[in-house]
């Protein structure tokens, strides 16, 4: 792939090479030298010093455990563009202290460096704090699926791209609103007027999350994810490589497909209402094995289950509606070649009642849930930063014959980073 540096090389070829300064620390000798921090050393980095005031309003939260070595490397690289007190390790107290420290800054911009779970964590803390001026959140994707990052234009994973260009995207990115959905559960019990309810000692009373940022699902895909997570919890020493993880995931999928173990799974859904209209008969007609509720278009590492078509409004993550699609187990393999799910509807409020424990997942976190009544409705909207292609091109103009070791390809660092790349979802095995 041709880099922005190659595309725009020569535009600023007369720019002098900035002096280098030694970092406060380095990771195993991987990063030997850094460009001058534009906030602390404006005279040594005149290009970025022009936007030093913008850099002061950016804070970053990094999950150093995300993406293998990449999380720690990103933490170090950010030190060259932001003040040290603007960068926070999420494993040391979470995001609240950092937000509290900088909450009074005008146009505060937050970089969430990690997977979709890291982004959700930051958004949940912002909910709790109820700030008068909501900060906007950008994403540096370090997780596996990174579906929210893909939707907002940040890509499927960080692979040694220029940190300088990324920072410019954060500054000049488009401010957008992201719908966030509350999902509440209440246990269902048998009574004289109800269908008999079955319970299980293995099932949970609550879902792992109570807010949907990306998607929620019931059925086959959640079962496959749950089987995988259960196996990993029992024998964590076996799940140390991505290759093994994908093989194990494929085994679970193949077993369910061949045994047709999911074909009657959703028969114990007794209520399925969207905006007050029952779609239970439609579920039975489609012979659904899995139902997916999409807040964003990207699912399972960039797959697109929903297709805009006549009779439905164009899909949007900020319209107060959630898209609902149906799958059979075999359809998950076909997602790889662009096949879409069967459309059920778009809705503002959903009510579901189950009569037996069913596998479910919220934003990739699976569980086996006791019979419950589930309600999904709009909670609020988060303020996000989208990285548009136009802004990427504008920001590339500062990146020409870049001599910064942390921006350009470095043989020593490049191999280390790409060897830890884990931006493929387990569904990609099919």
Brief overview, please?
With 430 residues, the protein is α+β, with helices and mostly antiparallel strands.
Give the distance, in angstroms, between the N- and C-terminal Cα atoms.
Answer: 25 Å
The biggest sheet amounts to: 6 strands, antiparallel
Number of strands: 18
Largest sheet: spatial strand order: 8-7-18-15-10-11
Radius of gyration: 23 Å
The total of helices stands at: 14
Query: Which class do the helix and strand fractions yield?
Result: alpha+beta
**What is the helix fraction of residues, given as a range?**
25-40%
On the 0 to 100 scale, the average pLDDT is 77
Which segments are poorly predicted (pLDDT under 50) over 5 or more consecutive residues?
Answer: 1-36, 392-430
Shape descriptor: globular
How much β-strand is present in the residues? 15-25%
């Amino acid at each position: 792939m041709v880099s922005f540096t190659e595309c725009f090389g020569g535009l600023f070829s007369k720019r002098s090479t900035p002096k280098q300064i030694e970092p406060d620390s380095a990771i195993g000798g991987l990063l030997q030298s850094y460009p001058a921090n534009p906030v602390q050393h404006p005279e040594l980095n005149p290009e970025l010093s022009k936007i030093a005031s913008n850099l002061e309003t950016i804070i970053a939260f990094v999950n150093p455990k995300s993406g293998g070595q990449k999380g720690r490397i990103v933490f170090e690289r950010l030190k060259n563009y932001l003040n040290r007190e603007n960068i926070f390790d999420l494993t040391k107290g979470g995001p609240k202290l950092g937000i509290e420290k900088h909450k009074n800054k005008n146009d505060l911009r937050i970089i969430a460096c990690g997977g979709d779970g890291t982004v959700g964590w930051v958004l949940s803390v912002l909910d709790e704090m109820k700030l008068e001026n909501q900060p906007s959140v950008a994403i540096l994707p370090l997780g596996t699926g990174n579906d929210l990052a893909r939707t907002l234009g940040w890509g499927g994973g960080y692979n040694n791209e220029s940190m300088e260009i990324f920072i410019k995207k954060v500054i000049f990115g488009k401010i957008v609103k992201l719908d966030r959905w509350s999902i509440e559960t209440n246990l269902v019990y048998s009574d004289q007027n109800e269908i008999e309810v079955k319970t299980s000692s293995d099932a949970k009373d609550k879902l792992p999350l109570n807010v949907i940022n990306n998607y929620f699902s019931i059925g086959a895909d959640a079962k496959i994810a749950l089987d995988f997570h259960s196996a990993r919890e029992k024998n964590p020493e076996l799940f140390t490589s991505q290759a093994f993880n994908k093989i194990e995931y494929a085994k679970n999928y193949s077993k369910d497909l061949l045994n047709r173990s999911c074909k009657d799974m959703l028969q114990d859904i007794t209520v399925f209402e969207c905006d007050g209209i029952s779609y239970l008969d439609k579920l039975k007609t489609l012979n659904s094995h899995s139902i997916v509720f999409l807040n964003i278009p990207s699912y399972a590492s960039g797959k697109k289950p929903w297709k805009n078509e006549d009779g439905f409004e164009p899909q949007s993550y900020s319209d107060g509606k959630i898209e609902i699609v149906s799958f059979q187990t075999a359809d998950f393999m076909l997602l790889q070649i662009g096949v879409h799910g069967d459309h059920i509807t778009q809705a503002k409020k959903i009510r579901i009642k189950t009569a037996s424990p069913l596998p479910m997942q919220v934003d990739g976190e699976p569980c086996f849930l006791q019979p419950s009544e589930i309600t999904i409705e709009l909670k609020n909207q988060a303020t996000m930063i989208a990285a548009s292609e136009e802004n990427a091109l504008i920001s590339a103009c500062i990146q020409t014959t870049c001599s910064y070791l942390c921006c350009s390809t470095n043989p020593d660092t490049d191999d280390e980073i790409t060897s830890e790349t884990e931006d493929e979802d387990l569904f990609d095995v099919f």
